[in-house]
Write a structure and sequence with these properties.
Number of domains: 2
Shape: elongated
Order of helices and strands: HHHHHHHH
CATH topology of the largest domain: Rna Polymerase Sigma Factor, Chain: A
CATH superfamily of the largest domain: RNA polymerase sigma factor, region 2, helix turn helix motif
CATH architecture of the largest domain: Orthogonal Bundle
Number of helices: 8
């Protein structure tokens, strides 16, 4: 059975610095997803994630354990990304194919048409999330990809609960409005190919 985050942190504090690699392995993919959503650049996201892990490692003795490690770490990452966004003069766009694709699990009983439709749906959702304003895409990413609760999102973003719920509501409304058009567009482009 894998160690909990708090057990790993206890091990690190007892001198096993190499145990921090397990926390990095545990959170690097979700951290990358959040950073890419916020920064719209894979290269900037990689730097932000690395910087955040270094900051978390250096400040680990300040982690009190009153919240989950993941919430504390995502707060660090969120701040690093906000700082980078504040320094930019123009918004960067993600080039096609730069972001890691979500893989559809291979199962023996999955209908190939269902798998293709699911992949198209995921692609359409990702495309919409990349295009909506950062304040909405970051909340969506924290809620759906990092699977944080409303309270944890409030802690990470330092936004009031009402604002988090409003941003999530607006982001879902944008998705609901644009998804049918995006799916039709995906279908037309795949039908031509």
């Amino acid at each position: 059975m894998p160690l909990s985050d708090n057990e790993i942190i206890r091990t690190i504090r007892q001198g096993a610095e190499e145990a921090f690699a397990e926390l990095v392995d545990r959170y690097k993919d979700k951290a990358m997803t959040l950073a890419v959503r916020m920064l719209k650049s894979r290269e900037d996201a990689e730097e932000a994630v690395q910087d955040s892990f270094v900051r978390a490692h250096n400040a680990l003795n300040k982690f009190k354990g009153t919240s989950k490690f993941s919430t504390w770490f995502y707060r660090i990452l969120y701040n690093v990304c906000l700082t980078r966004l504040g320094k930019r003069k123009e918004e960067l766009k993600i080039g096609s194919g730069e972001e890691r694709e979500f893989e559809i699990e291979d199962r023996q009983n999955v209908d190939p048409y269902t798998a293709l439709a699911s992949k198209d749906l995921i692609h359409a959702i990702k495309k919409i999330i990349e295009e909506i304003p950062e304040r909405y895409s970051s909340i969506l990413s924290l809620f759906y990809f990092q699977e944080l609760s409303y309270e944890e999102i409030c802690e990470v973003t330092r936004l009031p609960l009402g604002t988090v719920k409003a941003h999530l509501f607006r982001a879902r409304a944008i998705l609901q409005k644009r998804l049918p058009r995006e799916i039709q567009s995906e279908y037309r482009s795949s039908a031509r190919n």
